[in-house]
C-alpha cells in the first residue's frame, strides 16, 4: 500500500472516531443507567473478537453477532464505538504487526461502513433500537434478517473492492466467502436471538450464560478446523514423503523441499545443513526475496548450532526470544525454527526456517515439520548414497576421472545435441608407460597416472570432459570445437608433459624421490559430414581419433600430436 493512501486511511479513521466519541459525550447522560450492562456486552464482544475461526484461507469473526445485540439494545453509536475498539483484539489475533498497522484504520472503516449500511436497511424495514424487545417487534424478523444479510454482503463487497483496487488482487473468492459467512450466520444468528430474549428476561446474567455458549461453540469450531487442517497437512506430508523418496539428486530434493514449505508455512529464509561428526556445512539455502546467503552461514549460525548441541527442536516466535543466538541472520527476521534431522539416532543434518512475521509457526505446523524432518533425513541419506554409487559407477577410482562407459554415453548425447556443430576428441596414450611400472613399481606408475589426470583437467576447457580410456590412455571430449582449436589444446598438453617432470618415489630400490619425464602420443579428430551426408556418430569419431594417434603419432616415433585430417595428407595413409 502506498504511503499517501495509508495516511488518508489513518486521517479518515481518526476523524470518524472523534465524531463518534463526540456523539457519545453529547448523549452520555442517557447511558448512565446501562453502563454495567454495556461493559458486560463489551467484554463478551472482546472475548469473541480475540478468538477468530480460520477456515482454509478465510478468517471468520463472530464478535459482530454480539455487537448486533448492542445495536438493538443500546443504539448505533455505541455499537460503532464498541466495534472500533474490539477490532484491535481481532486484528492482533489474526497477525497484526508493525508491517501491517494499516489494517487498523482499513478494517475499522470497512466495519463502520458495513454497520451504517446495515443499520439504514434495518430502519427502512421498520426496525427500532433502544426499545423493549419482543419477537413481534421486528415484523417477524424482517428488519433483523435484512440487517444481517446487508451486513454480510456489504462487508464482503467492501473487502472485495479494497483487495481489487488497493492491493490489485484480481482473483478472489467473493461468493465462496459470502457462503461461508451465511453458514456461520445459520449457526450464530439463533444464538443472537436467544441472547436478546434472555437479556429481556434475565438482565445481565444472560450475558454470562450466552457468553459461555458463544465461546464454547467458537472453541469447538476452532478445534474442528484445526483437526481438518491437520488431517489435510498429514495427507500432504505423506505425499511429500513419496515425492522425496523419488528424488535421485540433491537438486530435485531441494526443489521438492522448497515447494512443500511454500504450501505448508509462511517462511522467508531456508537453511539446510549437513552434519558429519558434529561438523556443520551448508547444503542449501534459499531466500524468498532472492537475497544471497552470507558466507559466515556456510558453517552454520549460532541458533542452528545450539539446536545441534542440545539435540532438540528449537522455536521462537519473536526476535526478542532468540536471546544472543542467530546474530548472523538478518535482523528483520522474527520467527525461527531449527530442527535436527536424525537417521537411526544419529544427527545427519539441520533444517532451519525463518520468517519475517511473528508467531509464524504454530502447533500443528511444528508437528508437521517434525514429520517432514524425519522424511527429509531419510531422503537425504538415500540421495547421498545414490550419488556415491553413481559417482563410483561413472568415475575411475584411481584418477577420479570419468570412466569410458560414462564418456561414451556423454559423447553420444553431445553429438545428438550439437547436431551440425563440430565435436572434437583428443585421444592420448602415454609412451613406454610399462617401463615406468617395471623400473619404479606399480604404485609409482599409479602416481604418474593421477598426475597426468590432474594436468589434463587443468588444461582442458571448462566445457570439456576428461575420461580415462583404459590403462595409460586418456580421452578428452570438446563440444563445439573445431579440429584446429582442439589441436591447440592437444599441443598444450603435449608441451606440459614433455617439459614438466613428475616427482615419484622409486619403490623398487631405495624409495627415494626422483623426477621423470613422461611423454605421450596424441591423436585429434573432429566430427564431419560423411559420404551419406550424415554427421559422424560416436564410434566413427573415436576410430578417427584412434587412427590419428596410432598412425600419425605412435608410428611416426611417438611424443607427437597428430590430427586426423592432417594425417590423411601423408602419402602412405
From TrEMBL:
The UniProt keyword set, sorted, is: Membrane, Nucleotidyltransferase, Transferase, Transmembrane, Transmembrane helix
Q: Which organism is it from?
A: Alkalihalophilus lindianensis
- Cite the GGDEF domain residue spans from the record: 421-566
Name of the top EC class for this enzyme = transferase
Instruction: Extract the NCBIfam families matched here.
Output: GGDEF
Q: GO molecular function: any one?
A: diguanylate cyclase activity
Q: Which PANTHER family match?
A: DIGUANYLATE CYCLASE DGCN (PTHR45138:SF6), REGULATORY COMPONENTS OF SENSORY TRANSDUCTION SYSTEM (PTHR45138)
The record ties this protein, via Pfam families, to: GAF_3, GGDEF
Query: Know the name of this protein?
Result: Diguanylate cyclase
Coiled coil stretches, renumbered? none
Cite the EC number: 2.7.7.65
Classification via SUPFAM superfamilies: GAF domain-like, Nucleotide cyclase
* Regions that span the bilayer: 7-26, 33-53, 65-92, 104-126, 141-162, 174-197, 203-224
Amino acid at each position: 500500500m502506498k504511503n499517501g493512501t495509508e495516511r488518508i486511511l489513518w486521517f479518515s479513521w481518526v476523524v470518524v472516531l472523534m465524531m463518534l466519541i463526540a456523539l457519545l459525550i453529547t448523549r452520555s447522560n442517557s447511558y448512565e443507567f446501562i453502563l454495567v450492562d454495556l461493559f458486560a456486552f463489551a467484554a463478551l464482544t472482546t472475548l469473541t473478537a480475540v478468538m477468530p475461526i480460520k477456515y482454509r484461507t478465510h478468517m471468520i469473526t463472530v464478535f459482530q453477532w454480539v455487537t448486533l445485540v448492542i445495536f438493538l439494545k443500546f443504539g448505533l453509536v455505541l455499537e460503532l464505538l464498541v466495534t472500533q475498539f474490539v477490532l484491535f483484539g481481532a486484528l492482533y489475533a489474526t497477525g497484526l504487526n508493525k508491517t501491517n498497522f494499516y489494517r487498523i484504520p482499513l478494517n475499522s472503516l470497512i466495519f463502520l461502513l458495513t454497520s451504517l449500511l446495515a443499520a439504514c436497511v434495518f430502519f427502512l424495514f421498520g426496525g427500532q433500537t433502544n426499545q423493549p424487545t419482543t419477537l413481534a417487534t421486528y415484523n417477524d424478523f424482517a428488519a433483523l434478517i435484512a440487517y444481517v444479510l446487508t451486513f454480510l454482503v456489504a462487508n464482503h463487497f467492501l473487502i472485495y473492492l479494497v483487495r481489487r483496487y488497493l492491493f490489485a488482487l484480481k482473483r478472489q473468492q467473493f461468493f465462496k466467502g459470502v457462503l461461508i459467512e451465511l453458514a456461520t450466520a445459520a449457526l450464530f444468528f439463533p444464538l443472537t436471538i436467544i441472547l436478546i430474549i434472555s437479556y429481556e428476561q434475565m438482565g445481565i446474567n444472560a450475558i454470562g450464560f450466552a457468553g459461555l455458549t458463544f465461546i464454547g461453540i467458537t472453541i469447538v469450531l476452532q478445534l474442528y478446523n484445526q483437526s481438518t487442517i491437520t488431517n489435510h497437512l498429514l495427507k500432504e506430508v505423506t505425499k511429500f514423503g513419496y515425492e522425496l523418496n523419488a528424488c535421485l539428486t540433491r537438486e530435485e530434493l531441494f526443489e521438492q523441499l522448497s515447494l512443500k514449505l511454500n504450501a505448508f508455512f509462511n517462511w522467508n529464509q531456508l537453511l539446510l545443513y549437513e552434519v558429519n561428526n558434529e561438523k556443520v556445512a551448508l547444503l542449501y539455502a534459499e531466500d524468498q526475496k532472492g537475497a544471497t546467503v552470507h558466507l559466515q552461514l556456510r558453517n552454520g549460525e549460532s541458533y542452528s548450532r545450539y539446536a545441534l548441541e542440545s539435540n532438540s527442536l528449537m522455536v521462537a516466535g519473536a526476535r526478542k526470544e532468540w536471546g544472543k543466538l542467530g546474530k548472523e541472520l538478518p535482523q528483520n527476521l522474527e520467527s525461527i525454527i531449527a530442527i535436527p534431522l536424525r537417521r537411526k539416532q544419529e544427527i545427519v543434518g539441520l533444517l532451519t526456517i525463518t520468517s519475517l512475521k511473528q508467531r509464524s509457526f504454530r502447533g500443528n505446523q511444528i508437528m508437521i515439520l517434525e514429520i517432514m524432518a524425519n522424511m527429509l533425513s531419510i531422503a537425504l541419506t538415500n540421495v547421498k548414497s545414490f550419488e556415491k554409487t553413481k559417482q563410483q559407477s561413472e568415475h575411475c577410482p584411481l584418477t577420479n576421472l570419468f570412466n569410458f562407459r560414462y564418456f561414451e554415453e556423454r559423447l553420444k548425447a553431445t553429438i545428438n545435441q550439437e547436431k551440425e556443430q563440430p565435436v572434437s576428441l583428443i585421444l592420448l596414450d602415454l609412451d613406454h608407460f610399462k617401463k615406468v611400472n617395471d623400473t619404479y613399481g606399480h604404485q609409482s606408475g599409479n602416481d604418474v597416472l593421477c598426475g597426468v589426470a590432474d594436468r589434463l583437467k587443468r588444461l582442458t576447457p571448462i566445457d570439456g570432459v576428461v575420461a580415462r580410456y583404459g590403462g595409460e590412455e586418456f580421452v578428452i571430449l570438446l563440444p563445439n570445437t573445431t579440429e584446429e582449436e582442439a589441436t591447440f589444446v592437444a599441443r598444450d598438453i603435449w608441451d606440459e608433459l614433455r617439459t614438466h617432470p613428475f616427482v615419484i618415489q622409486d619403490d623398487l630400490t631405495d624409495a627415494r624421490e626422483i623426477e621423470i619425464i613422461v611423454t605421450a602420443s596424441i591423436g585429434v579428430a573432429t566430427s564431419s559430414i560423411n559420404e551419406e551426408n550424415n554427421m559422424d556418430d560416436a564410434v566413427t569419431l573415436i576410430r578417427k581419433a584412434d587412427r590419428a594417434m596410432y598412425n600419425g603419432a605412435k608410428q611416426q616415433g611417438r611424443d607427437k600430436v597428430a590430427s586426423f585430417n592432417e594425417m590423411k595428407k601423408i602419402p602412405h595413409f
